[in-house]
Recover the amino acids of this structure.
Protein backbone atom coordinates (compact mmCIF):
# COMPACT_ATOMS: atom_id res chain seq x y z
CA UNK A 1 0.00 0.00 0.00
CA UNK A 2 1.24 3.48 -0.85
CA UNK A 3 1.99 5.77 2.09
CA UNK A 4 0.68 9.30 1.44
CA UNK A 5 2.68 12.30 2.64
CA UNK A 6 0.88 15.63 2.25
CA UNK A 7 2.33 19.10 2.59
CA UNK A 8 0.07 22.17 2.70
CA UNK A 9 1.84 25.31 1.44
CA UNK A 10 4.33 26.07 -1.32
CA UNK A 11 6.34 28.75 0.49
CA UNK A 12 9.74 28.42 2.13
CA UNK A 13 8.85 25.64 4.58
CA UNK A 14 6.72 23.57 2.19
CA UNK A 15 9.19 23.79 -0.69
CA UNK A 16 12.28 22.87 1.33
CA UNK A 17 10.37 20.00 2.95
CA UNK A 18 9.13 18.65 -0.40
CA UNK A 19 12.63 18.67 -1.87
CA UNK A 20 14.22 17.08 1.21
CA UNK A 21 11.60 14.29 1.20
CA UNK A 22 12.11 13.70 -2.54
CA UNK A 23 15.84 13.31 -1.90
CA UNK A 24 15.54 11.11 1.21
CA UNK A 25 12.73 8.88 -0.05
CA UNK A 26 13.70 8.70 -3.74
CA UNK A 27 13.78 4.85 -3.87
CA UNK A 28 10.45 4.52 -2.03
CA UNK A 29 8.80 7.15 -4.26
CA UNK A 30 10.19 5.55 -7.44
CA UNK A 31 8.88 2.13 -6.39
CA UNK A 32 5.42 3.51 -5.55
CA UNK A 33 5.63 2.73 -1.82
CA UNK A 34 5.48 6.44 -0.96
CA UNK A 35 3.71 9.37 -2.62
CA UNK A 36 4.57 12.97 -1.71
CA UNK A 37 2.00 15.66 -2.62
CA UNK A 38 2.19 19.39 -2.06
CA UNK A 39 -1.08 21.35 -2.02
CA UNK A 40 -0.70 25.08 -2.49
CA UNK A 41 -3.10 27.84 -3.44
CA UNK A 42 -0.50 29.85 -5.36
CA UNK A 43 1.26 28.64 -8.52
CA UNK A 44 4.14 30.93 -7.61
CA UNK A 45 6.55 30.62 -4.71
CA UNK A 46 6.95 34.05 -3.11
CA UNK A 47 10.27 35.00 -1.49
CA UNK A 48 9.06 37.74 0.85
CA UNK A 49 12.47 39.14 1.98
CA UNK A 50 12.65 40.78 -1.49
CA UNK A 51 9.81 43.13 -0.45
CA UNK A 52 12.13 45.01 1.93
CA UNK A 53 14.05 46.38 -1.07
CA UNK A 54 11.03 47.29 -3.25
CA UNK A 55 10.14 50.60 -1.50
CA UNK A 56 13.69 51.85 -2.21
CA UNK A 57 13.56 50.85 -5.88
CA UNK A 58 16.27 48.20 -5.44
CA UNK A 59 14.05 45.23 -6.39
CA UNK A 60 10.70 44.66 -8.06
CA UNK A 61 7.93 42.42 -6.82
CA UNK A 62 8.50 40.23 -9.91
CA UNK A 63 11.96 39.44 -8.45
CA UNK A 64 10.17 37.79 -5.50
CA UNK A 65 8.26 35.20 -7.53
CA UNK A 66 9.14 31.93 -9.27
CA UNK A 67 6.76 29.14 -10.37
CA UNK A 68 6.56 26.50 -7.62
CA UNK A 69 6.89 23.76 -10.25
CA UNK A 70 10.36 25.04 -11.22
CA UNK A 71 11.54 24.75 -7.61
CA UNK A 72 10.09 21.42 -6.55
CA UNK A 73 11.53 18.01 -7.42
CA UNK A 74 9.61 16.15 -10.16
CA UNK A 75 9.05 13.24 -7.76
CA UNK A 76 6.64 15.46 -5.81
CA UNK A 77 3.06 15.87 -7.11
CA UNK A 78 1.68 19.37 -6.85
CA UNK A 79 -2.04 20.18 -6.51
CA UNK A 80 -2.90 23.85 -6.98
CA UNK A 81 -5.91 24.46 -4.79
CA UNK A 82 -6.87 25.89 -1.43
CA UNK A 83 -7.27 23.52 1.50
CA UNK A 84 -10.59 24.32 3.17
CA UNK A 85 -10.73 21.74 5.96
CA UNK A 86 -8.41 19.48 7.92
CA UNK A 87 -10.01 16.38 9.49
CA UNK A 88 -7.35 14.91 11.74
CA UNK A 89 -9.58 12.00 12.93
CA UNK A 90 -10.31 10.87 9.36
CA UNK A 91 -6.74 11.85 8.21
CA UNK A 92 -8.27 13.76 5.30
CA UNK A 93 -8.10 17.25 3.78
CA UNK A 94 -10.87 18.95 1.80
CA UNK A 95 -9.98 21.14 -1.14
CA UNK A 96 -11.86 24.17 -2.47
CA UNK A 97 -12.87 22.20 -5.59
CA UNK A 98 -14.58 19.64 -3.32
CA UNK A 99 -12.03 16.84 -3.69
CA UNK A 100 -10.87 15.02 -0.55
CA UNK A 101 -7.20 14.09 -0.07
CA UNK A 102 -6.25 11.35 2.41
CA UNK A 103 -2.95 11.38 4.25
CA UNK A 104 -0.76 9.19 6.43
CA UNK A 105 1.58 12.06 7.35
CA UNK A 106 0.54 15.71 7.11
CA UNK A 107 2.68 18.85 7.40
CA UNK A 108 1.03 22.25 7.66
CA UNK A 109 3.15 25.11 6.26
CA UNK A 110 0.52 27.75 5.44
CA UNK A 111 2.41 30.79 6.74
CA UNK A 112 0.50 33.79 8.11
CA UNK A 113 -2.36 36.02 7.01
CA UNK A 114 -2.08 39.81 7.21
CA UNK A 115 -5.18 41.33 8.82
CA UNK A 116 -4.92 45.14 8.42
CA UNK A 117 -8.71 45.44 8.82
CA UNK A 118 -8.30 44.72 12.53
CA UNK A 119 -7.09 48.32 12.88
CA UNK A 120 -9.72 50.81 11.67
CA UNK A 121 -8.27 53.25 9.12
CA UNK A 122 -4.98 51.37 8.62
CA UNK A 123 -5.78 50.26 5.03
CA UNK A 124 -6.72 53.80 4.02
CA UNK A 125 -4.15 55.73 6.03
CA UNK A 126 -1.08 53.50 6.10
CA UNK A 127 1.42 51.76 3.86
CA UNK A 128 3.46 48.62 4.40
CA UNK A 129 6.02 46.42 2.66
CA UNK A 130 4.84 43.01 3.97
CA UNK A 131 3.11 42.04 0.70
CA UNK A 132 3.63 42.70 -3.02
CA UNK A 133 0.90 45.34 -3.51
CA UNK A 134 1.81 47.15 -0.31
CA UNK A 135 5.50 47.28 -1.22
CA UNK A 136 4.73 48.73 -4.67
CA UNK A 137 2.41 51.40 -3.25
CA UNK A 138 4.98 52.31 -0.60
CA UNK A 139 7.64 52.69 -3.31
CA UNK A 140 5.47 55.31 -5.03
CA UNK A 141 4.71 57.12 -1.76
CA UNK A 142 8.36 57.14 -0.66
CA UNK A 143 9.59 58.41 -4.04
CA UNK A 144 7.43 61.53 -3.58
CA UNK A 145 8.24 61.99 0.11
CA UNK A 146 10.78 64.77 0.65
CA UNK A 147 9.62 66.38 3.90
CA UNK A 148 7.44 65.70 6.94
CA UNK A 149 7.07 62.97 9.57
CA UNK A 150 7.74 59.35 8.57
CA UNK A 151 6.37 56.92 11.17
CA UNK A 152 7.18 53.21 11.15
CA UNK A 153 4.75 51.51 13.54
CA UNK A 154 4.79 47.81 14.35
CA UNK A 155 1.15 47.00 15.07
CA UNK A 156 0.95 43.77 17.03
CA UNK A 157 3.22 40.81 17.64
CA UNK A 158 4.03 38.22 16.49
CA UNK A 159 4.90 39.38 12.97
CA UNK A 160 7.09 37.97 10.21
CA UNK A 161 10.79 38.74 10.32
CA UNK A 162 11.04 40.68 13.58
CA UNK A 163 14.10 42.50 12.22
CA UNK A 164 12.47 43.87 9.05
CA UNK A 165 10.84 46.97 10.65
CA UNK A 166 14.20 47.96 12.22
CA UNK A 167 15.89 47.34 8.88
CA UNK A 168 13.34 49.44 6.99
CA UNK A 169 13.76 52.34 9.43
CA UNK A 170 17.59 52.31 9.19
CA UNK A 171 17.44 51.94 5.40
CA UNK A 172 14.94 54.82 5.13
CA UNK A 173 17.23 57.03 7.24
CA UNK A 174 20.21 56.28 5.00
CA UNK A 175 18.20 56.50 1.77
CA UNK A 176 16.79 59.93 2.72
CA UNK A 177 20.32 61.11 3.67
CA UNK A 178 21.67 59.97 0.30
CA UNK A 179 18.85 61.88 -1.41
CA UNK A 180 19.78 65.01 0.58
CA UNK A 181 16.38 65.39 2.31
CA UNK A 182 16.97 63.77 5.70
CA UNK A 183 17.06 67.17 7.46
CA UNK A 184 13.53 67.83 6.29
CA UNK A 185 12.19 64.47 7.50
CA UNK A 186 11.53 63.46 11.10
CA UNK A 187 11.52 59.67 11.62
CA UNK A 188 9.75 57.82 14.45
CA UNK A 189 9.83 54.06 15.11
CA UNK A 190 7.21 52.55 17.41
CA UNK A 191 7.06 49.07 18.97
CA UNK A 192 4.28 47.50 21.06
CA UNK A 193 6.36 46.15 23.97
CA UNK A 194 8.66 47.93 26.43
CA UNK A 195 11.72 47.86 24.15
CA UNK A 196 12.50 48.36 20.46
CA UNK A 197 12.58 44.63 19.58
CA UNK A 198 11.54 41.31 21.12
CA UNK A 199 15.18 40.16 21.54
CA UNK A 200 16.98 42.23 24.19
CA UNK A 201 20.38 42.42 22.41
CA UNK A 202 18.75 43.45 19.12
CA UNK A 203 16.64 46.02 20.97
CA UNK A 204 19.80 47.48 22.59
CA UNK A 205 21.65 47.57 19.26
CA UNK A 206 18.68 49.12 17.42
CA UNK A 207 18.15 51.73 20.15
CA UNK A 208 21.81 52.83 19.83
CA UNK A 209 21.51 52.98 16.05
CA UNK A 210 18.31 55.03 16.27
CA UNK A 211 19.88 57.46 18.73
CA UNK A 212 22.97 57.94 16.55
CA UNK A 213 20.79 58.68 13.54
CA UNK A 214 18.26 60.93 15.20
CA UNK A 215 15.35 58.50 14.92
CA UNK A 216 12.69 58.87 17.65
CA UNK A 217 11.62 55.68 19.42
CA UNK A 218 8.26 55.07 21.11
CA UNK A 219 7.83 51.81 23.04
CA UNK A 220 4.68 50.37 24.67
CA UNK A 221 2.99 51.90 21.65
CA UNK A 222 -0.03 49.83 20.60
CA UNK A 223 -1.75 51.54 17.68
CA UNK A 224 -5.45 50.70 17.58
CA UNK A 225 -6.84 53.24 15.11
CA UNK A 226 -5.64 55.39 12.23
CA UNK A 227 -7.37 58.61 11.23
CA UNK A 228 -6.50 58.82 7.51
CA UNK A 229 -7.99 62.33 7.09
CA UNK A 230 -6.23 63.98 10.02
CA UNK A 231 -3.17 61.69 9.65
CA UNK A 232 -3.11 60.70 13.29
CA UNK A 233 -2.27 57.34 14.85
CA UNK A 234 -4.20 56.56 18.06
CA UNK A 235 -3.05 54.01 20.63
CA UNK A 236 -4.70 51.76 23.22
CA UNK A 237 -2.69 53.66 25.82
CA UNK A 238 -4.52 56.87 24.83
CA UNK A 239 -1.60 58.48 22.95
CA UNK A 240 -1.65 60.17 19.57
CA UNK A 241 1.06 60.54 16.94
CA UNK A 242 0.80 62.78 13.86
CA UNK A 243 2.32 61.47 10.66
CA UNK A 244 2.76 62.51 7.05
CA UNK A 245 3.73 59.04 5.83
CA UNK A 246 2.75 56.00 7.91
CA UNK A 247 4.39 52.61 7.40
CA UNK A 248 2.28 50.33 9.61
CA UNK A 249 3.26 46.66 9.89
CA UNK A 250 -0.24 45.12 9.86
CA UNK A 251 -1.38 42.64 12.51
CA UNK A 252 -0.82 38.98 11.58
CA UNK A 253 -2.93 35.91 12.26
CA UNK A 254 -2.47 32.19 11.66
CA UNK A 255 -4.88 30.06 9.61
CA UNK A 256 -8.61 29.45 10.25
CA UNK A 257 -7.95 25.85 9.20
CA UNK A 258 -5.91 25.40 12.36
CA UNK A 259 -8.54 26.81 14.68
CA UNK A 260 -11.36 24.89 12.99
CA UNK A 261 -9.38 21.62 13.23
CA UNK A 262 -8.77 22.18 16.95
CA UNK A 263 -4.99 22.26 16.40
CA UNK A 264 -4.28 25.52 18.25
CA UNK A 265 -5.42 29.00 19.23
CA UNK A 266 -5.29 32.10 17.05
CA UNK A 267 -4.63 30.00 13.96
CA UNK A 268 -1.17 28.90 15.21
CA UNK A 269 -0.54 25.14 15.43
CA UNK A 270 0.38 24.05 18.94
CA UNK A 271 3.45 21.82 18.47
CA UNK A 272 6.21 20.22 20.48
CA UNK A 273 9.02 22.72 19.83
CA UNK A 274 11.60 19.96 19.30
CA UNK A 275 9.68 17.37 17.24
CA UNK A 276 7.32 19.88 15.57
CA UNK A 277 4.49 17.36 15.99
CA UNK A 278 1.04 18.79 16.66
CA UNK A 279 0.04 18.23 20.26
CA UNK A 280 -3.66 17.72 19.40
CA UNK A 281 -3.40 15.10 16.62
CA UNK A 282 -1.25 12.20 15.48
CA UNK A 283 0.80 12.26 12.26
CA UNK A 284 0.48 16.03 11.91
CA UNK A 285 3.48 18.37 11.85
CA UNK A 286 3.64 22.15 11.47
CA UNK A 287 6.60 24.21 10.28
CA UNK A 288 7.33 27.84 9.49
CA UNK A 289 5.21 30.80 10.46
CA UNK A 290 2.02 28.82 11.19
CA UNK A 291 3.73 26.77 13.91
CA UNK A 292 3.63 28.11 17.45
CA UNK A 293 7.34 27.79 18.23
CA UNK A 294 9.16 30.17 20.61
CA UNK A 295 11.43 31.81 18.05
CA UNK A 296 11.18 34.31 15.18
CA UNK A 297 8.71 33.91 12.34
CA UNK A 298 11.50 33.72 9.78
CA UNK A 299 12.32 31.86 6.58
CA UNK A 300 15.49 30.48 8.17
CA UNK A 301 13.35 28.88 10.89
CA UNK A 302 11.00 27.35 8.30
CA UNK A 303 14.05 26.04 6.43
CA UNK A 304 15.71 24.35 9.43
CA UNK A 305 12.39 23.00 10.70
CA UNK A 306 11.70 21.50 7.26
CA UNK A 307 14.98 19.55 7.46
CA UNK A 308 13.99 18.10 10.84
CA UNK A 309 10.48 17.13 9.73
CA UNK A 310 11.82 15.56 6.51
CA UNK A 311 14.11 13.38 8.63
CA UNK A 312 11.31 12.40 10.99
CA UNK A 313 8.78 11.58 8.26
CA UNK A 314 11.39 9.62 6.27
CA UNK A 315 12.24 7.58 9.38
CA UNK A 316 8.53 6.88 9.98
CA UNK A 317 7.98 5.86 6.37
CA UNK A 318 10.83 3.36 6.70
CA UNK A 319 9.52 1.96 9.98
CA UNK A 320 12.39 3.50 11.97
CA UNK A 321 12.12 5.57 15.15
CA UNK A 322 12.55 9.29 14.29
CA UNK A 323 15.37 10.98 16.20
CA UNK A 324 15.92 14.37 14.50
CA UNK A 325 14.97 17.37 16.64
CA UNK A 326 14.81 21.14 16.19
CA UNK A 327 16.84 23.12 18.70
CA UNK A 328 15.59 26.56 17.66
CA UNK A 329 18.27 27.45 15.10
CA UNK A 330 17.48 30.90 13.71
CA UNK A 331 19.70 32.93 11.41
CA UNK A 332 19.00 36.51 10.47
CA UNK A 333 20.84 39.17 8.46
CA UNK A 334 19.91 42.70 9.56
CA UNK A 335 20.37 45.63 7.18
CA UNK A 336 21.72 48.68 9.04
CA UNK A 337 21.35 51.07 6.11
CA UNK A 338 21.53 50.85 2.31
CA UNK A 339 25.00 49.31 2.24
CA UNK A 340 25.83 47.85 5.67
CA UNK A 341 24.37 44.93 7.61
CA UNK A 342 24.91 42.73 10.63
CA UNK A 343 24.01 39.12 11.34
CA UNK A 344 22.65 37.12 14.28
CA UNK A 345 22.37 33.40 14.91
CA UNK A 346 20.81 31.69 17.94
CA UNK A 347 19.09 28.60 19.33
CA UNK A 348 16.26 28.31 21.89
CA UNK A 349 17.15 30.27 25.02
CA UNK A 350 20.29 31.94 23.57
CA UNK A 351 20.79 35.70 23.60
CA UNK A 352 22.41 36.51 20.21
CA UNK A 353 25.40 38.83 19.92
CA UNK A 354 24.90 41.69 17.47
CA UNK A 355 28.22 42.54 15.83
CA UNK A 356 29.05 45.94 14.31
CA UNK A 357 27.47 46.34 10.88
CA UNK A 358 29.74 46.07 7.84
CA UNK A 359 29.65 46.19 4.05
CA UNK A 360 30.70 42.53 3.55
CA UNK A 361 27.75 41.32 5.64
CA UNK A 362 25.42 43.47 3.52
CA UNK A 363 26.88 41.88 0.37
CA UNK A 364 26.45 38.47 2.00
CA UNK A 365 22.76 39.24 2.61
CA UNK A 366 22.28 40.29 -1.03
CA UNK A 367 24.20 37.18 -2.16
CA UNK A 368 22.03 34.95 -0.01
CA UNK A 369 18.88 36.52 -1.46
CA UNK A 370 20.09 35.65 -4.99
CA UNK A 371 21.11 32.10 -4.06
CA UNK A 372 17.83 31.54 -2.16
CA UNK A 373 16.32 29.91 -5.25
CA UNK A 374 19.01 27.21 -5.12
CA UNK A 375 18.49 26.80 -1.37
CA UNK A 376 14.76 26.31 -1.84
CA UNK A 377 15.47 23.65 -4.48
CA UNK A 378 17.69 21.89 -1.98
CA UNK A 379 20.87 22.51 -3.99
CA UNK A 380 22.67 24.46 -1.25
C1 LIG B 1 9.29 42.07 4.26
C2 LIG B 1 9.73 40.73 4.79
C3 LIG B 1 11.08 40.48 4.96
C4 LIG B 1 11.50 39.24 5.44
N1 LIG B 1 12.84 39.03 5.59
C5 LIG B 1 13.27 37.84 6.07
C6 LIG B 1 14.67 37.59 6.20
O1 LIG B 1 15.52 38.43 5.87
N2 LIG B 1 15.06 36.39 6.69
C7 LIG B 1 14.14 35.43 7.05
O2 LIG B 1 14.56 34.35 7.51
N3 LIG B 1 12.81 35.64 6.93
C8 LIG B 1 12.35 36.82 6.44
N4 LIG B 1 11.00 37.04 6.29
C9 LIG B 1 10.03 36.03 6.79
C10 LIG B 1 9.82 34.88 5.81
O3 LIG B 1 9.44 35.36 4.54
C11 LIG B 1 8.73 33.96 6.35
O4 LIG B 1 9.02 33.67 7.71
C12 LIG B 1 8.68 32.66 5.55
O5 LIG B 1 8.18 32.94 4.26
C13 LIG B 1 7.80 31.63 6.25
O6 LIG B 1 7.71 30.48 5.44
P1 LIG B 1 6.39 29.57 5.49
O7 LIG B 1 6.67 28.41 4.61
O8 LIG B 1 5.99 29.34 6.89
O9 LIG B 1 5.24 30.48 4.86
P2 LIG B 1 5.13 31.14 3.42
O10 LIG B 1 6.46 31.27 2.78
O11 LIG B 1 4.32 32.38 3.62
O12 LIG B 1 4.29 30.09 2.57
C14 LIG B 1 2.94 29.78 2.88
C15 LIG B 1 2.36 29.01 1.71
O13 LIG B 1 1.11 28.43 2.07
C16 LIG B 1 0.16 28.66 1.03
N5 LIG B 1 -1.17 28.55 1.67
C17 LIG B 1 -1.66 29.31 2.68
N6 LIG B 1 -2.88 28.88 3.02
C18 LIG B 1 -3.18 27.82 2.22
C19 LIG B 1 -4.31 26.96 2.10
N7 LIG B 1 -5.38 27.08 2.89
N8 LIG B 1 -4.29 25.99 1.15
C20 LIG B 1 -3.21 25.85 0.34
N9 LIG B 1 -2.10 26.64 0.41
C21 LIG B 1 -2.09 27.62 1.35
C22 LIG B 1 0.57 30.02 0.49
O14 LIG B 1 0.07 30.28 -0.80
C23 LIG B 1 2.10 29.87 0.48
O15 LIG B 1 2.52 29.16 -0.66
C24 LIG B 1 10.53 38.25 5.78
C25 LIG B 1 9.18 38.50 5.60
C26 LIG B 1 8.77 39.73 5.11
C27 LIG B 1 7.29 39.99 4.90
Amino acid sequence: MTEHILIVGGGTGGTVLANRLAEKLAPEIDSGDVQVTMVTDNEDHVYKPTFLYVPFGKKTTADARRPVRELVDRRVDITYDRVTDVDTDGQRLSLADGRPLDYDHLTLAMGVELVPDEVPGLQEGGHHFYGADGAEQLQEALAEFTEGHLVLSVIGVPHMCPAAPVEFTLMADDWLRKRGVREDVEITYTYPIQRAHGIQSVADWATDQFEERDVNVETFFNADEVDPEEKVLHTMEGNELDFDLLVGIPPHTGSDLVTDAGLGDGGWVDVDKHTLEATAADDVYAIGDVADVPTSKAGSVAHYEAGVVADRIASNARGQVPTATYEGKTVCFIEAGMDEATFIEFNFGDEPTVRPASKPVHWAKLGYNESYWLTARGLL
Remarks:
- Residues 3-112+254-329 form a domain with the FAD/NAD(P)-binding domain fold (CATH 3.50.50.60).
- The CA atoms of residues 119 and 269 lie 24 Å apart.
- Residues 8-14, 39-42, 48-49, 51-52, 82-83, 109-111, 129-130, 160-161, 164, 255, 257, 288-290, 297-300, 302, 332-333 surround flavin-adenine dinucleotide (CB under 6 Å).
- The radius of gyration is 21 Å.
